[in-house]
């Protein structure tokens, strides 16, 4: 059985809470990613997603100079390196998340797992496919 440590991305780009939204948006564009973990040192504080920028930034008419801590998502679901891929896929499907930060003791960020990382694992194709279909489905389709 594979674990998250076997599939997670470990060279994760991060930003600081005092960085501004514009700088992080440019970084997201340059890296072609939809989310950036927000950390102080190695400690995960939150995540800034492209959706956060739109919903809590642009839609609320906040300038690009707004600090990340004002628009980031703070209450995150996280995984651990020794967690199984099956457990993570199920959790991601149930909670409707596409990216799972992987942390160790004291919320130290050690990696990130995207839904696509799970989908490429031969042993978890069914679980990852289910997770993707659950996450991609309209909310009203869930019971």
TrEMBL record:
Keywords: CBS domain. Signal peptide: none annotated. Pfam families: CBS (PF00571). Gene3D superfamilies: CBS-domain. Residues 8-63, 72-129 form the CBS domain. Coiled coil: none annotated. This is CBS domain-containing protein.
């Amino acid at each position: 059985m594979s674990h998250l440590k076997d599939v997670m991305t470990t060279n994760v780009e991060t930003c600081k809470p005092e960085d501004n939204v514009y700088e992080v948006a440019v970084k997201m564009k340059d890296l072609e990613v939809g989310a950036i973990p927000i950390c102080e040192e190695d400690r995960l504080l939150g995540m800034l997603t492209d959706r956060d920028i739109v919903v809590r930034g642009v839609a609320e008419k906040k300038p690009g100079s707004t600090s990340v801590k004002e628009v980031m998502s703070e209450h995150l679901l996280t995984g651990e390196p020794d967690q199984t891929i099956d457990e993570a896929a199920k959790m991601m499907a149930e909670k409707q998340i596409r990216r799972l930060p992987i942390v160790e003791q004291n919320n130290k960020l050690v990696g990130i797992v995207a839904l696509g990382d799970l989908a490429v694992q031969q042993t978890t194709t069914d679980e990852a496919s289910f997770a993707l279909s659950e996450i991609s489905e309209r909310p009203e389709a869930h019971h």
